[in-house]
Amino acid sequence: MQEANNVDEDSELDINEYKEENKVILKTHEIVNIDLNGTIEKLDNGYVESKLVTIPEMVADDLGLIHGGFIFSAADFAAMVAVNEKNVVLVACECQFLSPVKFGDIVYFKAKVRHKEGRKRNVHVTGYVLDIKVFEGEFKTVVTERHVLKLKLIDEENEG
Known about the structure:
A 6-stranded antiparallel β-sheet has the order 1-2-4-5-6-3. It is α+β, with helices and mostly antiparallel strands. It contains 4 helices and 6 strands. The relative contact order is 0.16. The radius of gyration is 20 Å and the shape is globular.
């Protein structure tokens, strides 16, 4: 009977090791400032949940309005992480700022890859403060073979 228990324990251990091996690992935007772009709360293939805690550096006026650029940046970060490819870049975005965000608010983002075609990915991102939707956007991204700052134009390669 002891052997049967060992087999069960070994089987359970193998399952846990398997789950650990299949854990989704962050492959992109690994050194962004999380104070300005948000923290990853949940990461799955094609999906991310993140949280942006507003800080004084984001405030745009005396009433505590958070500049929309910080909301956009956090939404963009969520979109890039949802794609989670090393060389993903944003090429276009259509978005709406639906409600103001103020200092002290915590914005929760959800980003989901909706469409994948070749190197292109479309990511839908929503942002909420409590139950109020404050942001919604469709991010169009491309995954490049090399880092965007290391790409060369075909003409440059032929000249060199």
